[in-house]
Amino acid sequence: MQSLVGPVYNGIAFAVLFECFLIVATFSFNLEACVINPSQKLTMKSHNFEHILLLEPGSNTTMPTYYHVMYISFRFEWKIAKECSNTTRPFCNLTKEYEDYTHTYIAMVQSSTEREELNSSILEFTPYTSTCLGPPAVNLTACPTCINVTIKLPASYLKEKSLIDVYQKLDYTITPASHTSVSHSLPPELVTTCNFSYVVGSLHSNTNYCVSVAVAASLNRHSAPSALKCIITRSSTQPGITYFKVWWGRGSGIFLLVLYKGGFICLRSKPWPKVLVCLFIFNLPVHEPDPEKVCSVQVMYKEMEKTVWGYSYDDSESDSENSDEYTRHGILGRVPGSHAKSNTFMHQTTDCTSAESSSQAIEFLSSDAENSEEHQSVIRENESTSGEFFHPSSEVNSSSTSGLSNSACFNINLNTVMLGDPDKTWDDSATLISHQKDAVDLQDSSASDALVSKIFTDTVDVKKPDCHNISHEWQKPSVSDESDASDSEYVRR
Amino acid sequence: MFSRSLLQFCLVLLFSSEISCLDCNRIHVLQTRMNSESLERLEKMGGHFPFQCLTESKAFKPRDILKLRMSQQENAKGAIQQILQELFHIFNNNLTQAVWNEASIKEFQNGLHQQIEKLETCLSAEMEKEMTYLGNGNLLLTSLKLKRYFQTIDDFLKEKQYSLCAWEIIRAEISRCFLILDILTDRLKNEGTIFAFF
């Protein structure tokens, strides 16, 4: 197996490179330069079907040279270029002569001086495939993250025909000249008129972009690109709006701070009355209660050390004076912040009509919504035996400890958790642990095995943000936290 | 060692077949590109038109293929296929007197063959339907015109005994065929969705 891995990877890498090459080759664009100089003495400069034949460029004769230009198209007779017979001008305009642009023309130039006959030279030229297209007229307007490019085709020198009439479809290449210059080629289907606009999007705002546009046809790749035109993508918002946004943000922050200090938001300085604590426990349903199943649950408080009530952003402000109030909240655990103590726990027993609240409590432990069904089935299982203490961790273990790993905001030393009838004494701790060990087998996720073993011995340190969410949910049941879907269930009434 | 490189080779082939999968809804894009490439190869096959053959060129007077007009109802598929196949057939003739590079001739022929194949892959199903369509008299007319045009070319080559000048004249004429092919290929995109595989 190992011997195959190497060549497999090599093969895949090579194939991917090959594929990339093919893709690049498919989309590659060839735009040719506009100067046609096949012969040594003659050069044809043709732009948009205006053909100018340059005769002997760079010749240095002192005596005047007479040029005689003739041309022929295949299957036709030789014709004389009217404006260029016996002329001393070193160029000849053949626009009107090369009227039938799909044919191939051969021009012959005979140059002579007064004394002698110089050589003649010929130049073969097909206007349709060799004339240089463009440059188009380009106008730019800016928007925050895009540029609107208005393109106008140049006029052709043909009689009553535009470039679109000749070629029917043209490719446009818009090249933004920047550090990331990506050519946009417009499909010919989009372009049917001589004047149109195109929006180049996905740009950075407040950046200078320079754009150049080139036009070409499928069988004629000779194109003259337009000159670079630059524009800065500006944000359309007024400066005042930016200031408004800044001050609004600051004002909101100050307002929230004031609320927090005043105790309106987080209610740290205001203790909950005992009555309300119990009401909170009873009034946070997750699902409809099953009226048949009844169990009795008692809330019991044990000694709790100073805790941080889930305010992970506020670790420095844990007050010892509030520790008593925290215990009354009846949460099945607490957020292990930096100040978390390890030897606190809480038993919570609730009435099960109140099956909702116990199930809710279980939900509360593991905010993993996927396991809610398992939780509920476990609850029903346990509810059948009356008077059973509700011990959060065992329920959760039997369903899924992966839920624990997600969220649970509790910190329970399982060695001290007891299972049994409330009327009986608390001496069934061994039962609990063995029950928990059985619960391991029921789990599906193997990833939580390590976590399970941890639970048996240590307290679980869970993620702060989830706990942060949960605690907030607890404090303010009316507020739903969108970030955690399962958390929002807790506060639903 | 050998099995390793064989495995790599097989993987490359496997991925290549994925890459070269044909999208029949964009066949006109592919055909346009292949037209352009074939025309380039044709022009590169030989040099400039030999001056001495200019007099002979007057003897060749076919109908102007660019004046071929097709009605809106006719579709371009049949015409394109016919032209490509005739072009391929022309270059199967005796090319010994032509002074062109053997390799470039083969390249040109291969390019044409690929074009024909890809077009057939995408259009074969539709073609059968249309041939049996009784009201398609226009299609037949275009087909006859094209047939006559290419017959003229064949006759000229035979008459001049496949001489160098004859081949150069024909090569210049064939380059104009690609112009009409380009126009016809553009019409392919207007001819609806093409279902090549059922």
Q: Would you give an account of this structure?
A:
The complex is a heterodimer of chains A (493) and B (198). Chain A is α+β, with helices and mostly antiparallel strands and 493 residues long. Helices cover 31% and strands 19% of the residues of chain A. Chain A contains 14 helices and 16 strands. Chain A has helices at residues 2-27, 127-130, 163-167, 239-261, 274-282, 323-328, 355-365, 372-383, 392-399, 401-406, 429-442, 449-457, 464-475, 485-490; strands at residues 42-47, 50-55, 66-73, 79-87, 91-93, 105-112, 117-125, 137-143, 146-152, 171-177, 184-186, 195-200, 208-216, 229-232, 299-300, 347-348. In chain A, the strands form 5 sheets. In chain A, strands 4-3-6-7 form a 4-stranded antiparallel beta sheet, with no helix packed on it. In chain A, strands 11-10-13-14 form a 4-stranded antiparallel beta sheet, with no helix packed on it. In chain A, strands 1-2-5 form a 3-stranded antiparallel beta sheet, with no helix packed on it. In chain A, helix 7 (355-365) packs across helix 8, helix 8 crosses helix 9 and helix 9 runs parallel beside helix 11 (429-442). The radius of gyration of chain A is 42 Å and the shape is elongated. In chain A, 32% of the residues are buried. Chain B is mostly helical and 198 residues long. Helices cover 68% and strands 0% of the residues of chain B. Chain B starts with a helix and ends in a 10-residue tail after the last helix. The chains are: A alpha+beta (493), B mainly alpha (198). Chain A binds chain B through residues 3-4, 6-8, 10-12, 14-16, 18-19, 22-23, 38, 72, 74-77, 102-104, 106, 122, 124, 126, 128-129, 168-169, 188-189, 218-219, 221, and chain B through 4-5, 7-12, 14-16, 18-20, 32-33, 35-36, 39, 48-49, 51, 54, 57-58, 60-61, 66, 169, 172-173, 175-176, 178-179, 182-183, 186, 189.
